[in-house]
Amino acid sequence: MVRRLMAAMLAATAVAGAGSAAEKVPPLPPYVAAYEPTNVDERGAWMIADEDERRLRDSADVMRDPALNAFVRGVLCRTVGEDRCKGVRLYIVHVPAFNATMRPNGMMTIWSGALLRLRSEAELGAVLGHEFGHFELRHGLADFRNRRSGTDLMAWASVLVANSAAFQVDMVGGFYAFDRAQEKAADMIGVRYLAASHYPSHAAADIWDRMMGEADATAIGRHRKPDQRYAAGFFASHPTNLARATYLRSAAAELPDADGSAGVDGYRAAIAPWLPMLLDDQIRLNDFGGSEYLLGQLAVGGWATPLLFARAELYRMRGHPRDLVSAAGFYQEAIARGDAGAEAYRGLGLALMRSQQVEPAKTALREYLRRKPDANDASIIATLVAS
């Protein structure tokens, strides 16, 4: 029985991944106006999505800054076209993880952690175009129907063929492989959107190259072996990062690219006001390896003051003796730039205090209090200085 079970799992996984390297990039579907639900399943999916959107719309986690929202929406419209993007309601959600979502009623979200990790308008367009691909291909509706029918069939299967483990494994494999097929279809249509816009289509693959690097760095930082596989696991709902990077780069090579800019400078300018908050969110995730890798990627071309400060905070929070020495050096380098905030003096003072350099620590903490006398922790810091 175990042997048959394993054989069924391997067969289902092989079917799910077959043909990925040889597939051609599909053309964009013809544009149609916003779709309306027509049957019970679709109306049910719509009701759930509408209720989710109502809760999200009223949530304190939504970032409502008009300039940031206009920028992100502008990239979406330039990527998929003005007509297509009219049917989307876009929400930027303050969650420090790389993710974006699309619901069948036209609700799209992108998380703040994604904004931190992307480098250009083209990469943002790749993420948003992927999500819009789910919408245009109506994956949300198909997924709703598939999950409903799949779980119903599993329930009947448990009664009708209770002794056939291979049958149940095959059903579960198809259930999750369906999601992988959706993800790949959205990836491929997203590349098409980029190629049809003025953004370079290779941007999509660049994202997943860096996501692999960050995942490896996180694993190494947590004393685990990096795990980068081409084939998705049997129960995985998405292709692996390696598979995505491979087929997206191959797809981009097939497509003619416009001569437009990737929009690196425009992206940096739009994210700059939010960079300190996004970096602080990342540092607090307790992911030293991944955060150090991410900071290094963001610092390609030079360590800006916010990046130096974030790196100093990362090392100080881990708190190994050598980390404290490194942190003090990063704080001092940021301060020497002349544009560091008062918090750099606070961090420097705390790092020096933990390194038993009491007088230099007090000097730095006094400067922090001078620059920010109304700080929330002013009384605590004043106690440290007076001790």
Automatic annotation (TrEMBL):
Cofactor comment text: Binds 1 zinc ion per subunit.
Pfam families assigned: Peptidase_M48 (PF01435)
Name listed for the protein in its UniProt record: M48 family metallopeptidase
Keywords: Hydrolase, Metal-binding, Metalloprotease, Protease, Signal, TPR repeat, Zinc
Sequence ranges of the TPR repeats: 342-375
Organism, scientific name: Sphingomonas liriopis
CC cofactor: Zn(2+)
GO CC terms in record: membrane
Family the UniProt entry places it in: Belongs to the peptidase M48 family.
GO biological process, one term: proteolysis involved in protein catabolic process
PROSITE patterns, per the entry: TPR
Phylogenetic lineage: Bacteria, Pseudomonadati, Pseudomonadota, Alphaproteobacteria, Sphingomonadales
Top-level taxon of origin: Bacteria
Annotated ranges, domain Peptidase M48: 95-250
Signal sequence coordinates: 1-21
Molecular function in Gene Ontology: metal ion binding; metalloendopeptidase activity
